[in-house]
Amino acid sequence: MKYDGTSSHFDYKLTIFHNVCERVEFPREAYVRAFPIMLKGLAEAHYFNGMLSRLSYLDACNNMRAYFEGPEYYRSNLNKWNNITLDSFSVKHPDKSTWEVV
Question: What is the helix, strand, coil percentage profile of the chain, to 5?
């Protein structure tokens, strides 16, 4: 349920955070204080190293999103997608026929 900045989308984890806060009737104005609880790993380090606790809740969320899922994030995903080929999958699965790889 925690966001680490590498393996999940920030907005998905933020939705979970909001849902949990609403279920326990946590006041929206206190979300900024609870925000670091939903972080781990690189995201948690960024929060504390970047002193995001000094920002408003909305600004802290926007900073986190921009830092981990900004243009470089999308460029990296596009490069991964563009490098996918039938040959690369065939090499990864030599025991399968071309039809099975497709």
Answer: 70, 0, 25
In the chain, alpha helices (H):
10-23, 31-34, 41-49, 57-69, 71-82, 86-92, 98-101
pTM surpassing 0.85? no
Angle at the Cα of 73 (from 80 to 15), degrees rounded to 5?
Answer: 115
- Calpha distance 46→14 (Å, rounded): 16
Strand, coil or helix: 51: coil
User: Which amino acid is present at 71?
Assistant: P
Amino acid at 102: V
Give pLDDT tens digits for 57-69.
Answer: 999 999 999 898 8
Please answer whether residues 98 and 90 qualify as being in contact, where contact means their C-beta atoms are separated by less than 8 angstroms.
yes
DSSP code of residue 3: B
What is d(CA 101, CA 96) in angstroms, rounded to the nearest whole number?
6
The model's confidence at residue 75, banded by pLDDT at 50, 70 and 90, is low
**Which amino acid is located at 55 in the chain?**
L
